[in-house]
Design brief:
Blueprint (H helix, E strand, L loop, with lengths): L3 E6 L5 H9 L6 E7 L16 H12 L2 E3 L1 E2 L19 E6 L7 E4 L5 E2 L12 E4 L5 H14 L10 H22 L1 E4 L7
Length: 194
């Protein structure tokens, strides 16, 4: 499965947000939406006392992607003003996939960059498998072994769940042993079928 990271810069006219809201962009499997949204709001900036209606649009867009506003582990401004008397602010935000226990917060690096660690699970894929080729001598031997061992099963007096369970386990063992006796190990290659 593929996941996407959406990085957005929305100018002071909120052009990117308007585009996303008006076009109803349909992108599935967004893991992270981050960027400079150019919105001041008390919801993420405690030094700002007002709520912006543009924030409502941002939350509608995030919700359409199944994302929630992430909380930072080290709250601090993400934009430092060089104008005397103008306050520093939080304009860079990160939204993370709802319900993800691995992705539940982010931090702001000393360079004022939003950072998150994304855990990647190492998957080990087998290089070989056991198979019985169709219409082969091994397939015939497998079927014959299963049939002959099925004939030895005692299915009399199966009048309760315990006896039925015992017979089912015997069937499983018969098939497992016949498979081990007749299957051959084959290696995966670029020509192997999925």
């Amino acid at each position: 499965m593929y996941f996407f990271i959406l990085n957005i810069y929305s100018d002071s006219s909120h052009t990117a947000l308007k585009y996303l809201k008006d076009t109803e962009v349909n992108i599935n499997n967004i893991l992270i939406m981050t960027g400079d949204f150019n919105i001041r709001d008390h919801l993420w900036d405690p030094t700002f006392s007002h709520h912006s209606t543009i924030s409502d649009n941002l939350f509608i867009i995030a919700n359409s992607f199944n994302l929630s506003l992430s909380t930072t582990t080290n709250p601090c401004p993400t934009r430092y003003s060089d104008v005397s008397g103008e306050a520093n602010s939080v304009l860079d935000l990160m939204f993370l996939q709802n319900g993800s226990s691995e992705l539940d917060s982010h931090h702001i690096s000393p360079e004022n960059r939003l950072s998150i660690e994304i855990p990647i699970i190492e998957e080990v894929f087998p290089a070989s498998k056991f198979t019985i080729p169709p219409k082969s001598n091994q397939e015939k031997a497998f079927i014959n072994e299963v049939i002959s061992n099925f004939k030895t099963l005692n299915t009399n007096d199966m009048d309760n769940v315990i006896k039925l369970d015992h017979v089912v386990k015997q069937i499983r063992h018969i098939i497992d042993y016949a498979w081990k006796d007749n299957a051959k190990k084959s290696r995966f290659s670029k020509h192997s079928k999925q």
